[in-house]
Amino acid sequence: MTAGKETMGEQPIFTCKAHVFHIDPKTKRSWMSASSAAVSVSFFYDSSRNLYRIISVEGTKAVINSTITANMTFTKTSQKFGQWSDVRANTVYGLGFASEAELGKFIEKFQEVKEAIQAQQCGGAKATNGSGAATPVASATASPLLAARAADEPPAPAQPKVEDDAMMVHQRAHSVSSTLQGGYATVGRAPRGPPAAPESGDSAEQQLRYENDRLKLALAQSSANAKKWEVELATLKSNNLRLTAALQESTANVDEWKRQLHQYREEVARARHYATGKGGDANEVEQLRQRVAQLEAELAQKNEELAQITKSKKSEQDAEAKLAQSQLELALAAQDGQRQVIQALNDQLARQIDELSNIHREINTALQT
Q1: How far apart are CA 48 and CA 131, in angstroms?
Q2: Using one digit for the tens of pLDDT, what is the confidence trace for 284-341?
Q3: Does the pLDDT at position 145 exceed 60?
Q4: Does residue 147 contact residue 6 with C-beta atoms inside 8 Å?
Q5: Left, alpha or beta for 50 (phi > 0: left; psi -120 to 50: alpha)?
Q6: What's the CA gap between 128 and 114, in Å, rounded?
Q7: Which of 86, 131, 190, 289 qualifies as a cystine partner to 66, CB 3.0-4.6 A?
C-alpha cells in the first residue's frame, strides 16, 4: 500500500534504525530482504482514529505499513532479530537491529502500544486514561520523510466479532510456525517442500490441519537426522573394530621379532662358549670369532629395527585409536542431541495441537453465540 501525506491527527511517537525483511510468500519458511540497508522504522499514532501503525520508507517505497492490533505479538527470535505477523497485510515482517539493546527498546514500545490498544478496546478512552497509558509524545528523532510518507489509507472498517476471532486464530498460527522456524531450523532439511499454506479466507479447520502438517514435517525431519546419526555411529564402531584388529596384528608381529631376537642371542652364546672351550686350530677360532661378531652386528641391527617398528606402530595405533574415540564420542553426543530435539518436538506438537483445538472450540462457541 502506497503511503500518502501525513494527516493532522497522526504523529510519529518512536523511531529506530533496522534492516527490514518480509517472509517469502511462496515457501513461508525463508526471509527476503525488503530494504537495501538499515532504514528508519517508526511508530505512528492517529489520535483522531485511535490508530497505531508501524511505517518504514526507503526512497519512494513503503517497506512496512502495518496497522497494530491487540492480537499482534512481536517475537524475539535471536539477540538482534524479531518478527511479527500482520494478517491484514498478509505477510510476516522481520527486523534486524545493530544491537540487542535497540531490539529491546523496540519490543518495549511494541508492548506499550499493544497495551494501550487493549485498554482502549476494554474500556474506551476513560479506561485508557485510568490505566495510566499516557498519550504518546512525538519523537524528536522521527524522520520527516516518514512523516510525509505516513500512509493516507482509509480508516479500517469495523470487524465483527467472528472475524476478530478468526484473525486471532490466524495470528496465533503464524506464531506457531515462526517458533518452529526459529527454534528448529537446523534440525535437517526434508527432500520436499512444506505443505502449501491455506488462503486467508479458508476456515479455521483448514488452518489447524495446515499447522498440524507442518509440525509432522518437522518431526519427520528430526527422525531422519536421528537415523542418519545412527548409521554414522555404526560406521564408527566398525572402524574401531578394524583398528583393534590391526593393533592385535601389530602386537603379534612384535612378539615374533622378540622370539627371533632370543634365538639370535642363544646362537651367539653357544658360539662364544664353543670358541672359548676349543683351544686347537687358530683358524677355526678366528672363524668362530668372526661369526660371533657378525651375529652380534645382526643382533644390534635387529634390536634397532625392532625399536623403530615398535615406536612407529605404537604412535600410529595411538593416533588412530584417539581419532576413532573422538569420532565415536562426537557421534554419541550428536545422537543424544537429536533425541532431545525429537522429544522436544513431540512435546511441542502435543502442546500446539491442544492449543489449536482449544482455539477451534472457542471459535465454534463464538459462532454459535
Answers
A1: 20
A2: 777 878 888 888 888 888 888 888 888 888 888 788 878 878 888 887 888 888 888 8
A3: no
A4: yes
A5: left
A6: 12
A7: 86
Q: What is d(CA 228, CA 225) in angstroms, rounded to the nearest whole number?
A: 5
- Helix (H/G/I), strand (E/B), else coil: 34: coil
**SS3 state at 14:** strand
**Distance in Å from the first CA to the final CA of the chain:** 35
Question: With 0-12 CB in 10 A as exposed, 13-18 as middle and 19+ as buried, what is 286?
Answer: exposed
For 263, counting Cβ atoms within 10 Å of its Cβ (0-12 exposed, 13-18 middle, 19+ buried), the class is: exposed
Torsions phi, psi of 31, nearest 5? -100, 145
Of 180-184, 253-257, 364-368, the poorest mean pLDDT is in: 180-184
User: Tell me, what DSSP letter sits at residue 139?
Assistant: P
Strands (E), the chain: 10-23, 31-33, 39-46, 51-58, 61-67, 75-76, 81-86, 91-96
* Least trusted range by pLDDT, from 20-29, 143-152, 191-200: 143-152
CB of 71 closer than 8 Å to CB of 167: yes
- The residue written with cell numbers 524528536 in the block is 140
What's the CA gap between 363 and 160, in Å, rounded? 13
Q: Would you state the cell numbers that stand for residue 96, as one nine-digit string?
A: 534486524
Judged against a pLDDT cut of 80, whether residue 31 lies above it is answered with: yes
Helix or strand holding residue 115 (H, E):
helix 100-130
SS3 at position 54: strand
- Per the CB < 8 A criterion, the answer to whether 1 and 150 are in contact is no
Residue whose C-alpha is closest to residue 119's, from 173, 74, 41, 52: 52
- Show the cell assigned to 108: 518495549
- Which of 170, 168, 191, 183 lies closest to 215 in space, CA to CA? 183
- Rounded distance, CA 302 to CA 105, Å? 78
Distance CA 225, CA 342 (A): 10
The helix or strand, by DSSP H or E, that contains position 138, with its residue range, turns out to be none
Give counts: helices (H), strands (E), the chain: 5, 8
Q: What is the DSSP letter of 79?
A: S
